[in-house]
Structure formats: C-alpha cells, structure tokens
Specification:
It holds the Pfam family Glyoxalase. With 127 residues, the chain is of the alpha/beta class. The protein contains three helices and eight strands.
Length: 127
C-alpha cells in the first residue's frame, strides 16, 4: 500500500491553483470538473509520477471549521520537504510569501512555516 493522493482544504480553488503552481512551483496534473468544483491535483516537478496534492474545496462546514481552527492554533495543514530551506525561504520571500516562522533548527531538522493565502499554514522542512 502507498499514498497516492493527499488533500489540503482550500478556500478558493482558482487562487490555490495559482499560488501552488506559480509561487510554490508545483505542476498541475489533473483539473477535472466535478459538479460545482474541480478535481485539481498537483505534483512535484521532480517527481511527476509521485504523490498528488489535491486542492480540496472547504465547502463542507466541518472542513471550514477544521481549517480555521488549526490555522488559528498555528498548526500547519501539511509539510513539504526542501533541499535547502534557507534558499527556499529567500525565494518565497521574494515572491511575497508571508512566513509565520523563519527557518528554525529543530534537532537535526530545520523547519519554517508560511501562509498559503488559501486558509492554511504550510510547513517546509529540510532533513
């Protein structure tokens, strides 16, 4: 068994698609209409056959509440790995990304947290 899709709730699928592709650099793999929403799945540019990130609309009241509460408590919705966290931090700052935590050493890892503009905090990690 393996993970093939992981979801993240977003407030606006179009805004999320723009942020996750143009700012973060993910590649759109699927964009299929499903009722009033879309099945939008992204992949890493260096692993296009890898795990897909689904931009899931937070239309359900429980999804909205979950997203709002974890964000308010400073809990990241997901984590992405990076090769050089300081380089990635600088690249994202230059693109206007707002960080809630600068790169911080935590044991053998370094993490940073940013706002994805779609209702989530996202953690990046360099192992």
């Amino acid at each position: 068994m393996k993970i093939i899709v992981s979801s993240i709730f977003v407030q606006d699928q179009d805004k999320a698609l723009e942020f996750y592709t143009e700012t973060l650099g993910f590649i759109k793999k699927h964009d299929v209409p499903v009722g009033k929403f879309r099945w939008i799945a992204l992949v890493s540019p260096d692993k296009q056959d890898g795990t897909e990130l689904l931009l899931e609309p937070n239309d359900h009241p429980a999804a909205k509440e979950y997203q709002m509460k974890i964000s308010a408590d400073g809990i990241p919705a997901t984590m992405f790995g990076v090769e050089d966290i300081h380089k990635e931090y600088q690249r994202l700052l230059e693109k206007g990304v707002k960080f809630t935590m600068k790169p911080t050493k935590m044991g053998e890892n370094t993490i940073a947290v940013f706002d994805d503009t779609c209702g989530n905090l996202i953690q990046i990690i360099q192992k």
